[in-house]
Design goal:
The chain has 510 residues and is mainly alpha-helical. The chain contains 22 helices and no strands. Helix 16 packs antiparallel against helix 18. It is a multi-pass membrane protein.
């Protein structure tokens, strides 16, 4: 049974047309999310330079250095583990101390560790990698915190008719981060000739958007839903929203004795399992399966770049075709930017435009279905694509288009809408952490092992078999989506069964 108090401030937020404060909240959350994504996605460029600078063999001057598998695994693992921990920790913290305060801590951590990552020094290559692992872990903690906090802030500020659009726009900042990272790499490599400085500048640049978002967040108050429903102070929530809405919203003190029921049940309660247990399982499973596919198929990008001749297939070939490490990174940045523009970015734009038109569940089902078919086509005709590079690239980009137009966006949106305000960040953090677990399995689990010559090791299952497995995981993701209710156009409080209130006229608002 839910509380039945009339909360004018919630009605005003749900009915609000798009205003400046909506755009401000989305811009602040998006900028912070961009900062975390920039630092995570720039790793490919940075690691290639680290190998050239610190692991070159002086006895073999004709061959450039390459980051050892153990060092690459340590750096990736530190970032993944930090992100996983941050999603859980800051999810809980956002519900405990408020979205605004917790987000400030997460952004400060990203800014500080971005700058510190670029200043990772040491007397030996191992010392540099160890120091970078330390800062990458804490950077991941802050970036992981951005998932539940940015989602909750935007969902709780937005009106019910355009909430999906704003949430999708925040997640689309991930695509902007990919382009920005490659643009920074291109700009730095054009100006700086010393490889050891290039990767440091790329990392330090990630502190800028985090610092900007940290400052801008001070311009907005705590979300009204947190203040009214979690902190229990609807009068302060009404006063805050009266300022941002330029309206007069009156609210009485919340008398929790009226309903006569205890609705303060927690995450580990029978009531939560009955009301939202299936929602949490479905959203977490869909995100896990999506990231398992998304991060596994990154291996195809290496094949694609090699087939197109945009990137050498082996370090020895790289030495023969590229002047130096800086030029190699410049070519890689151009290639990654082009691939993102062909598939990922249009997918994000498609999701932003249509998520409040066709709904979250339809986009997610369609995305998983298209990805399943693409993986099957790539696997069934894998030998054929060796001579049909254009077809290989087309299917690859179609898969990424539908991933970003569907589950890669909707998996972020749904957990921000289904759960009560007092558990919203916590549950979103759990779903996001499940996705990160899928990413770890995809990146380190069953993908083909690579030998010293760049070829596949017999110990791996092979790229073709991997594609069949990914087709299966996408199909399972589509099935789990059927258990996620559609949230389009509904109030957050109606979806979570937390508060039922009547629509009211707010003086000065209509």
């Amino acid at each position: 049974m839910a509380r039945t108090h009339q909360l004018n401030v919630l009605a005003a937020l749900d009915r609000a047309k798009t205003r400046r404060y909506h755009l401000a909240a989305a811009a602040i959350a998006g900028t912070g999310f961009l900062a975390g994504a920039y630092n995570l996605y720039s790793a490919t460029l940075v690691y290639r330079l680290l190998g050239r600078v610190y692991f070159a063999d002086s006895a073999r001057p004709g061959e450039p250095g390459a980051l050892p598998p153990a060092a690459a695994a340590a750096l990736n693992g530190a970032a993944y583990c930090g992100t996983f921990a941050g999603q859980l920790a800051f999810g809980r913290l956002g519900d405990a101390i408020g979205r605004r305060r917790a987000y400030g801590l997460a952004l400060a951590l990203v800014a500080a560790c971005s700058a510190a990552s670029g200043l990772s020094f040491g007397r030996t290559a191992k010392a540099v990698v160890a120091t970078l692992c330390f800062f990458r872990f804490w950077l991941g903690v802050g970036a992981g915190g951005g998932y539940p906090l940015s989602a909750a802030i935007v969902a709780e500020y937005a009106g019910k008719r355009r909430r999906g659009t704003f949430l999708a726009a925040v997640y689309a900042a991930q695509g902007v981060a990919i382009l920005l990272g490659n643009a920074v790499a291109l700009a730095v490599s054009a100006v700086v000739t010393e490889a050891d400085y290039v990767w440091r500048v790329i990392l330090v640049a990630g502190a800028v958007p985090a610092a900007v978002s940290f400052y801008l967040r001070t311009k907005l108050p705590e979300t009204a839903r947190y203040t009214a429903l979690v902190a229990g102070d609807p009068k302060s929530a009404a006063a805050d929203m009266s300022r941002v809405l330029c309206a007069s919203i009156q609210e009485q003190e919340l008398d929790v004795s009226v309903s006569g029921v205890d609705d303060k049940w927690g995450l580990f309660s029978v009531q939560f399992v009955k009301r939202h247990g299936l929602h949490l399982l479905a959203t977490s499973s869909a995100w896990f399966l999506l990231d398992l596919t998304y991060y596994s198929q990154n291996i195809l990008q290496k094949d694609l770049l090699a087939k197109l001749g945009w990137l050498s297939a082996s370090p020895a070939a790289a030495a023969a075709t590229m002047d130096d490490a800086v030029e190699e990174v410049s070519r890689l940045a151009r290639a990654q930017a082009l691939i993102a523009l062909c598939g990922a970015i249009p997918g994000y734009c498609f999701a932003v435009a249509l998520i409040d038109v066709v709904g979250r569940r339809r986009l997610q089902v369609a995305g998983f279905l298209a990805m399943t078919l693409c993986m099957l086509a790539l696997a069934a005709l894998y030998d054929h694509w060796a001579s049909d590079v254009a077809g290989f690239m087309a299917l690859y980009n179609v898969a990424f288009f539908f991933a970003n137009a569907g589950p890669n966006t909707t998996a972020f949106v749904a957990p921000a809408e289904l759960f009560p305000a007092r558990l919203r960040c916590t549950c979103h953090g759990i779903a996001a952490a499940a996705g990160r677990a899928g990413a770890v399995l995809g990146a380190f689990g069953f993908f083909p092992k690579r030998g010293a010559d760049g070829g596949e090791d017999a110990a791996g299952i092979g790229t073709r078999n991997e594609l069949f497995v990914l087709a299966g995981t996408n199909f399972l993701g589509m099935l789990m989506t059927l258990f996620v209710p559609e949230t389009r156009g509904a109030s957050l409080e109606v979806l979570s069964k937390e508060v039922v209130y009547e629509a009211v006229d707010v003086a000065g608002y209509n």
